[in-house]
Amino acid sequence: MRFSALALSLLSTLPLTAETPEDIVRFLNGDLLHGRFKGISANTIQWKAPQAKNDNQYESNAISQIILREGHATRPLPYQPTAHLINGDELPGRIISLSGDELSFDSPLSGEVKIPKKSLARLQPNPHGGTLHYAGPYQSDGWLMPIHKSIEEPEPEQEAKHKEETAPWIYSGTAFYSKDTTPLVRNVSLPEKGRIRFKLGWRKRLNFSLAFHCDLTRPITPLDENNEEAEEQKKTLKFETLTKLSKGTALQQIPWLEPNNSNQALNYGTGYVLTLYSTYPSLYRCSFSDSGQAVVTNLRPSRSRTNLGENGEAEFDLRFNQAEKSIILYINGEYVAQWYDSDGYVGKGESIGLAANSQCKLRISDLRVTSWNGAQDSAVSMEHRERDIVLLTNGTDRFSGTVTGISENKLTLKGPYAEITLPLEDVADVRFAKNTLTKSEDIEWPANTALLHFQPLGRLSLSPVSATASEMEAKTPLFPQPLNIQLESATLLELNKTPHDLDEWFSEF
Amino acid sequence: MNGLANFRLLMASILTLSSSAQDLVTLNGGQNIRGKILSLGKEIVAVDSPHSSAPLKIKGTSVRQLEFQGSAQADLPRHSEQITLINGDVFPAEVLSLDETHLQVETWFAGPLSLPRKQLRSVHYGMKPQTLLYSGLQGLDDWNHQNDWSTSEENGLTLYSTNTGSINRTIDYSESFIFQTTIRWQNTPNISFYLAADSQKISNCKNAYRFTLGNQGIQVDRLIPLEQPRPNFSSLGDIRLKPSGMPKKLLKIEARVNRPARTLQIYLDGILQKTFGDQAEPPAGTHLIVESRSSGHRTHELVQLRIMEWDTKTQKLHREGPVEDPSVDTLSLADGDRYSGEILSIKAATEDNETLTMRSPLIKKDLEIPTSACSVLHFRKAIETPAASGTFGLALINGGTLGLQSIQLGSQLKADHPLLGELSLDRRILSQITRHQAEPLKETP
Q1: Within an 8 Å CB–CB cutoff, is residue A380 touching chain B?
Q2: How many angstroms separate the Cα of A223 from the Cα of each of A227, A231, A286, A346?
Q3: Interval A226-278: pLDDT, tens
Q4: Are B287 and B172 in contact (CB under 8 A)?
Q5: pLDDT tens digits along A111-157
Q6: What residues in B contact A376, CB-CB < 8 Å?
Q7: Where is A232: in which H helix or E strand?
């Protein structure tokens, strides 16, 4: 089994010291408290506020979310095989064996568990093509907002209040919400061959831009090419980079956007900008000439039809390969479009940018940047009613049939033409036949079901029975046995959906 | 009049001829000459023109392109495999066998060919026309009809309506299907087609796709059962047209319905106009209804009507391109499975049963797979792709292109192919010959 190096600079490892960030509890009525989560007992949350002498107790059905350590894990999980359950839950860990009707799985979250096969939708012995570069957002650290240069800077004593009132993006839970068309950018260490996946919700007609492989760098003063001295001056052309203007604060607003000029190259530097509309995507290649003039070219796709209505949600999957000069887009698991940049892959930066355009409002969550083994299979093509489907790490081989077992790090598959035994280290993804799985709508979830998120990946739907600050006992209808969950990798516990949840955002809608 | 003036007069009269079923010679300056292309030699193109008692002889270097009228595609044989060479040339063929060094194929236009494996890029299976589910217009007896539909034999057998009325019949639709019709009308059209309808009567029809050709263009709608939480009639979109302004008042409409993907594509005269998406569960009815809303001064005539199965899965594999690792052979099956390794052989076990044998480093035993289950074979890159593909580009009438040199055209086309050597091609395969810039051939190892 191969493990790949984590992009540790993107993750926070926190020693348990007095400086550990506080926990935050958000109530259904909108109230918010900082303090320390102490545990759960009989549907009551134990809480220690810094000013209080004693612990407080709150009814769990009055609470929306508990954010642990401001979204920082004490110990982020190492990058591991992942078991995906039929309801979307993800459990990272080690595959011990698969036989009969259950998977034996050893997770740092829960210890060794038996997962019924009918609850197991998917198994990734080697997830994400090898390397996870970014997962989140669990915090707003590292994200920047380039704003218009014409906006007046507030007085220093008003700066914090001004920022809160005018912030173009809001971070809440594990998502970003847009308020206007200001971009949101971050260096996510984009690889040369990789994938960007995210969930997008939108209100009003979809109009969203994703910049990628952008370097956030542009010439300070482009030259007038008619100027006789332009050729000589090219040698002294100066550049500015957005990230160098950062002071290191989360969601810092940096004057950057040129007034009355929405040129994508000036906004994001050299790279690509994918713009998504309701019925089609467009891809723009952004670069600068030798004299510093911005050049934006629309690349023609091989096929580009979508059908995304007004006010919706979708999952996006962008796969790119610099060496092959190709970019492929999938939406909700289906292939949508492919572009080939015959002039050469111009984007070498490692940053991405997100922006709502026009009147559109956005919610972005479950953002993952990973490497990619080159497999072009769409998620939908990996689903089959009667057959299990196994995709190998080489990105080429794909077998279907019945997975008869896993033991001693080998997977056996009975296919239509042969029985195949594969080393688990060569297996990227296993999807189990749909008609062998319990239908998620047939699962009866208790009323007190909560959702626990882990860093960098992992989530479990469970009913807390009891908890301390470091451990939780819980039940879930997907597992026959109760679970003992270690909380050092947990970042967010969602207990109830608030009626004023940001998902109902922006009341004008 | 001197010779030059005579020639100019002759050229002018040829060029002003209205086009009919004739070959077309395009010169470098853009001028066209119609006639029957008799021969193409090293330096001369001979054209039999109705305006000249002797064939016209045109310098080969003055010719940019030749277009051949040829036979109707439907009358020609078809092969269901498509061969792609490493220089990008593509042609249809029937695969006979494969061994370590050569692929043996049969072609109706060039006879048997023995293709060295190192010159092959891929073989695509299943490149044949979609299965025909229904071909209509065999007369009204084939349809249930209400009000004033009649048959005409003036322009072949057609159905026409001069009043308001409908015809309908049951169709065994495949999951995804292609509906084609050619309509002629007087003045302005107003005719609707209900596909996959749940009833043969329009008044009872609650679930169907409908497209209507009207004065403003084509309107595409979805009829949805009332129990769904939406109106029972939903507009999916439209295509703006001015049918009244069309000189011929004849239009070929093709609707491609992909029910699993919930999309409907409309083609007009062979060109994709729009793809419409449908949020609702697709209709599953088995009726086809054609409703004419003529009113005396407007006649609708159905010149052609066909419904075909649309194999979107195989076509999707072919369109998107399966995964290709240049260092190995890759076999993609029609069900989506893929194997990389070494394609050992293709052999005919029986007349109808051909088997492909493949070796994979991951599988102990060699795989034996019927070619009927195969979609695409990709061969590992054995040698560097040669840069040149010939002085002339030949477009084949039922798909494909070949780069050729030293073309000679008589009753057959004889040419040199940079990879395949000397070829003799049946004239009927010719669609177009275009002169490229001549490039030197690189030597192949």
Answers
A1: no
A2: 8, 9, 18, 21
A3: 666 656 666 667 888 898 888 777 788 888 888 766 789 989 999 999 999 88
A4: no
A5: 999 999 999 999 999 987 778 899 889 888 889 999 888 655 555 55
A6: 320-321, 323
A7: helix A230-233
Question: How far is B370 from A401, CA to CA, in rounded Å?
Answer: 17
Structure tokens at A442: 């047939």
Over residues A145-173, the mean pLDDT reads 69
Query: According to the model, what pLDDT value does residue A85 have?
Result: 95
* CA dist., res. A149 & res. A245, Å (int): 13
The DSSP 8-state label assigned to residue A316 in this structure reads E
For chain B, give every domain's residue range: 3-67, 132-310
Looking at the complex, does the CB of residue A418 fall below 8 Å from at least one CB of chain B? yes
Minimal Cα distance from B360: which residue of A? Answer: A397
Distances (CA, A) of A231 to A25, A239, A291, A346: 60, 17, 8, 23
**Amino acid A303: pLDDT:** 56
CATH numeric code, B3-67 = 2.30.30.100
Q: What is the pTM of this model?
A: 0.73
Mean pLDDT of B412-422: 89
ipTM of the complex, rounded to two decimals: 0.79
pLDDT level of residue B5 (50, 70, 90 thresholds) = very low
Number of H helices, E strands in chain B: 2, 35
Asked if B150 contacts B161 with a C-beta cutoff of 8 angstroms, the reply is yes
Contact A422, A391 (CB under 8 A): no
Residues B109, B405: Cα–Cα separation, whole Å: 18
Low-confidence winner among A17-21, A33-37, A198-202, A408-412 (lowest mean pLDDT): A17-21
User: Which helix (H) or strand (E) covers residue A268, if one does?
Assistant: helix A264-268
- Strands of the B191-197 sheet, one edge to the other: B144-146, B164-170, B287-293, B191-197, B208-214, B217-223, B233-240
All structural domains of chain A? 8-76+442-504 (no CATH), 133-371 (2.60.120.560), 387-432 (2.30.30.100)
Whether B362 sits inside 8 A of A422 (CB atoms) is yes
**Tens-place pLDDT, residues A493-502:** 999 876 545 5
In SS3 terms, B191-257 reads as: EEEEEEECCCCHHHCCCEEEEEEECCEEEEEEECCCCCCCCCEEEEEEEECCHHHCCCCEEEEEEEE
Question: With contacts defined as CB-CB under 8 Å, which chain B residues touch A389?
Answer: 336
Do the beta carbons of residue B207 and residue B283 sit within 8 Å? Answer: yes
**CB < 8 Å to B367, chain A:** 417-418
CA distance B340 to chain A (A): 6
Q: Which CATH class is domain B132-310?
A: mainly beta
pLDDT per residue as tens digits for the range A327-378: 999 988 887 888 989 889 999 999 999 999 988 889 999 999 999 988 888 7
